[in-house]
Amino acid sequence: QCQSEALPVKSRSSKASVNLSALGDTQAKMLGQHLGQQLKGSQSRIRLMCSSAAGALETMRPLARVLRLRPAVIPELHECGGLPGSAGPSRDEICRHFPEFDASLIPETGQGSETPAQAWLRATTLAQLLKHRASAEGTASEGILVIVSHRDFAALLARFLLMPAQGDSSAQKYKDLFPDMFWPMNDTGVSHIILGVRATDRYAADAWLAYWNRSDHLVEAQRTGVDYRMIGFGRAAEWARLGEGGSGLLPKFEEQRVVCRLRRPWSGIISAAVLAG
Fold first, then answer.
1. Closest listed residue to residue 161, CA positions, set 172, 153, 173, 169
2. Cβ distance 151 to 80 under 8 Å?
3. Which of the ends of the chain has fewer CB neighbours closer than 10 A, N or C?
4. Which residues contact 102 (CB under 8 A, 6 or more apart)?
5. Residue 137 pLDDT greater than 90, yes or no
6. In whole angstroms, how far apart are CA 116 and each of 87, 113, 125, 175?
7. H or E segment at 59?
8. At 16, is the pLDDT very low, low, confident or very high (cuts 50, 70, 90)?
């Protein structure tokens, strides 16, 4: 999801919903533009799913428009903890403000909050369902599922997709959801997990992590979401290409010098200039 406004925007029914900031809107548009072009040739094999939170819906919208696909709003994709103090947007509200989305699975009165144990169970259940469907479909169709969710739930879901859950779901506090590791993501960071992998003599795993938290659709000044200051590693902002993370530090590199840029042949550049004129 993109960067959100700090202040909630209330709907007609007085249920708070968080909208995107100006930067978040830019992040969503850049995601739609670049990831949309990457996926456009595979449009017939793509399904789009997102959380019912307003920020997630707004993040998905530009990509859905580029791909000309109707996203499904899925109750299981909201952030860990749900929507404390609010039921969140109802089905009617989503249909009114996002008519191009399918919100038929969202409860009429919204979703509300949850305990850490319930978040754990939701992530494990969804991971099992996705893996089962991938296994049932096999590798012939190579379907592509694009999910827009939230930072903590995405990390929890990825954990259970890649490493089967150990222990029980007795998480009492939020931090119990991540007892031994956490995989941070930038706002609109893109990750690719392959499910339904055929076992080989070398690898028995049925899920592969192809990449995590790619943000090459953004420039350094547009990257947010990884809070270096909170974890005590602020100087990583100088080199890591994950944004300044609340550190207030500027990068000590020029991005155009560390990113490979495509260079068109001179004939293509001349042709483009003539057509533009």
1. 153
2. no
3. C
4. 70, 71, 72, 73
5. no
6. 17, 10, 14, 9
7. helix 54-67
8. very low
Q: Are 245 and 236 in contact (CB under 8 A)?
A: yes
- As a whole number of angstroms, the distance between CA 7 and CA 33 comes to 27
Q: Which residue in this structure is represented by tokens 């490979």?
A: 260
- Measure CA 62 to chain center: 14
How is residue 43 annotated by DSSP?
G
What residue has token string 């969140």? 88
Q: Cα(190)–Cα(217) distance, rounded to whole angstroms?
A: 9
Rounded Cα distance, 253 and 130, in Å: 40
C-alpha 250/C-alpha 235 separation (Å) is 9
Calpha distance 242→249 (Å, rounded):
12
pLDDT(268) > 60 = no
